[in-house]
From TrEMBL:
This is Sugar translocase. The keyword Cytoplasm does not apply. GO terms for cellular component: plasma membrane. Belongs to the GtrA family. It is found in: Membrane. GO terms for biological process: polysaccharide biosynthetic process. It is a multi-pass membrane protein. The chain crosses the membrane at residues 24-43, 55-72, 92-115, 127-150. Keywords: Membrane, Transmembrane, Transmembrane helix. It holds the Pfam family GtrA_DPMS_TM.
């Protein structure tokens, strides 16, 4: 079934709200995709070569997911926005994403080092659950909110549809 057919079946009040927030919804879908990429990388390397280094695993997962995020956000989520040279846009995207990686790591660092939820102070299962909740859930949600705001504000600042409309009217 085509996406247009699905959209037509959604009741009008909900459809209008979804269309109003389409950019945020697309960003959330990209976030979900990159969350799976991030989580897959984190656990693949933690269970193999970086078992004793959970923050290093977190950093590697975030870096790989960030590259995927740039491509998906540029081409889909914010495809109606722009206003910057591609190289400048990419530099800003990766700088903001680096800050986002820091935001992602804060809850897990607090869990590990301030709350001492790490082996040998707690059981390995307790550390694993605490790392998942603090890193994969809290950290990712905090970073997602920060990134959405910052990407719209600094990386993709201009709605190209509005600029096009003004040039046609002017």
């Amino acid at each position: 079934m085509a996406i247009d057919a699905i959209v037509r079946r959604i009741p009008e009040p909900l459809r209008a709200r979804l269309l109003t927030h389409r950019e945020l919804l697309k960003f959330a879908v990209v976030g979900a995709i990159t969350w799976f990429i991030d989580t897959g990388v984190v656990y693949a390397v933690k269970l193999t070569v970086l078992g004793e280094k959970p923050l290093t695993a977190r950093l590697l997962g975030a870096l790989i997911a960030t590259i995927a995020s740039y491509i998906l956000n540029r081409e889909w989520s914010f495809n109606t926005r722009g206003g910057r040279a591609r190289s400048h846009e990419a530099a800003l995207f990766f700088a903001i994403s680096a800050l986002g990686i820091g935001v992602t790591m804060i809850p897990q660092a607090i869990s590990l080092y301030a709350l001492d939820l790490r082996v040998p102070d707690v059981a390995p299962v307790t550390q694993a659950v605490a790392n998942f909740i603090s890193g994969q859930i809290l950290g990712v949600l905090l970073a997602m909110a920060f990134r959405f705001w910052a990407f719209r504000r600094f990386v993709f600042p201009h709605d190209l549809r509005e600029a096009e409309l003004h040039s046609i009217q002017g």
